[in-house]
Structures are given as structure tokens and as C-alpha cells.
């Protein structure tokens, strides 16, 4: 009986991209261990802690996104999502059933190609690419302004001090006309942990309530602890989620308005 080959260090492979990004954008490096309002950056050969400016909510306004701001908002969404993207892929690929499937495929490839290393790496790399494509396969990201200008769909931006776009949130009606979906909640890296996300959620709920919606639903990756904490703090209740091979990869939250 042919034994299944050992898998490569999946964690190491997945974290390579994150390591490169941090090295290239070292001035924008954040550590989750830092307390709210502080940012750790690399400068002149050493790490230093910078204090973020405190947020004056009277200087924060929320309005509909303008067409010329679409690219800025899209970049902010991408920046926010890539913080959890690799962790979500790592979570999916390291589930026992996923590891078994990858091992079986690697074993089969060993009979087709001469390289043992290639037989180990190809299934993992292909799985990573496929998962990345699936995560970014969403019609609203391709035409964000026109998409959220149709019907009852809307996308708003949080603007600080009249000209600094620092966050966004979108509404999409569901098949049940009583339920609105909260989507694309993101905050610029410099303004995180300063209350912008909470302001956006409250604004969203007020608008949804005024439009006659009775309930809000939203989805967040299981690895996103910060988002889970935010929504629980805002009164949202866990309502199942999306499963893959028996494991929850996306949590669903709901809240009555």
C-alpha cells in the first residue's frame, strides 16, 4: 500500500506573501497587540510606536460615495480584506479533510511527474490561487459605483475633517424585502479602532430602518475576530454561517431593527 506523502509547510507558503507585503510597505506595518490608538512602524532601523490622533466625532460625516471616490474606496476595501485573506485561506487548507484531499492529490501526482517536491507543492499552490480568485469574485467590486447606485443599493463613505475618506459601508436588499444586508464595511488603516466602524454601523441601521427594513443580516469570515467583536458589541446575534467540508468559514449575524 502506497503511503500518502507528507504535505509541505502550508503556513510557511501562505505567509510568504504577507511577509513580502510588510517588507515593501514597512511604514504601514500594524501589530494587533498594540493598544487602541497606537501604531507600530519601522523607521531608521528600529520599531517605534506612534500615537494616532484621537477622533473627534463632530468632524466625522457620512454621505453617499461619489463616482470619483470609487477607486479610493476599492483600494481601501482591498487593503482591509487582505488583512484576513491569508488567514482565511490558511484556516480552510489546514482543516483535516482539506489536508487529506491535498495528500491524496499529491500522491496521485507522484505517479505522473518525476519531481517529488512538485507533486507536493502543485496541489497547495493551485488551491491557494483558486481560493483567492473565489474570495475576490464579486460583481460589486468590478463596478462599485454603478452597482450601488441601482435600486435600493447604496454605499456610503465616512469623511473626516471634510476631505479625508476613512471608511465605507454598503447596503444591499435581500430576496426578503424586510431584510437588508450590511456589506463592504471597511475602515482606513490609520483610523481603525477609533470608532469609525461603529459610526458607520449606526448610520447604516438608521437608514435601513427609515427605508422600512425590519432586520439586518451580515457575513464575516470566521478568522476575523475584530469584526466579530464589533458586531457583537453592536447587538448582532450569530445565526449560523457558510460551511465547507463540515467547517464554518463565514459567520452570519442578524439584528432586528
Write a concise synopsis of the structure shown.
The protein is α+β, with helices and mostly antiparallel strands. It is 41% helix and 26% strand.
Can you put this structure into words, describing what you see?
The protein has 257 residues and is of the alpha+beta class. It has eight helices and nine strands. The strands form two sheets. A seven-stranded mixed beta sheet has the order 3-4-5-6-7-9-8, with helices on both faces. Helix 1 runs antiparallel to helix 2. The longest helix is centred in the N-terminal third of the chain and has 24 residues, at 70-93. The radius of gyration is 21 Å and the shape is elongated. The model is unreliable at 1-37 (pLDDT under 50).
Terminal Cα separation, in Å?
60 Å
Tally of separate helices: 8
Q: How many strand elements?
A: 9
Sheet with most strands: strand arrangement: 3-4-5-6-7-9-8
Calculate the mean pLDDT score and round it. 78
- Rg estimate, integer Å: 21 Å
Amino acid at each position: 500500500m502506497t503511503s500518502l506523502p507528507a504535505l509541505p509547510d502550508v503556513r510557511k507558503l501562505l505567509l510568504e506573501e504577507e511577509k513580502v507585503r510588510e517588507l515593501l510597505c514597512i511604514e504601514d506595518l500594524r501589530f494587533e497587540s498594540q493598544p487602541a490608538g497606537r501604531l507600530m512602524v519601522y523607521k531608521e532601523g528600529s520599531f517605534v510606536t506612534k500615537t494616532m490622533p484621537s477622533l473627534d466625532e463632530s468632524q466625522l460625516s457620512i454621505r453617499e460615495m461619489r463616482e470619483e471616490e470609487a477607486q479610493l474606496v476599492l483600494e481601501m476595501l482591498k487593503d482591509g480584506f487582505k488583512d484576513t485573506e491569508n488567514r482565511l485561506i490558511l484556516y480552510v487548507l489546514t482543516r483535516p479533510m482539506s489536508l487529506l484531499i491535498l495528500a491524496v492529490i499529491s500522491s496521485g501526482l507522484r505517479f505522473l511527474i518525476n519531481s517529488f517536491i512538485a507533486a507536493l507543492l502543485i496541489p497547495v499552490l493551485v488551491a491557494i490561487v483558486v481560493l483567492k480568485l473565489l474570495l475576490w469574485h464579486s460583481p460589486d467590486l468590478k463596478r462599485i459605483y454603478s452597482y450601488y447606485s441601482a435600486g435600493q443599493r447604496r454605499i456610503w463613505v465616512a469623511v473626516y475633517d471634510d476631505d479625508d475618506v476613512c471608511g465605507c459601508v454598503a447596503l444591499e436588499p435581500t430576496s426578503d424585502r424586510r431584510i437588508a444586508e450590511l456589506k463592504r464595511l471597511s475602515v482606513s488603516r490609520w483610523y481603525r479602532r477609533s470608532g469609525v466602524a461603529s459610526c458607520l454601523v449606526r448610520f447604516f441601521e438608521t437608514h435601513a430602518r427609515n427605508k422600512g427594513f425590519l432586520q439586518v443580516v451580515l457575513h464575516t469570515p470566521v478568522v476575523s475576530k475584530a469584526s466579530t467583536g464589533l458586531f457583537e458589541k453592536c447587538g448582532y446575534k450569530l445565526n449560523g454561517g457558510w460551511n465547507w467540508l463540515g467547517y464554518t468559514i463565514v459567520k452570519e449575524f442578524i439584528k432586528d431593527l
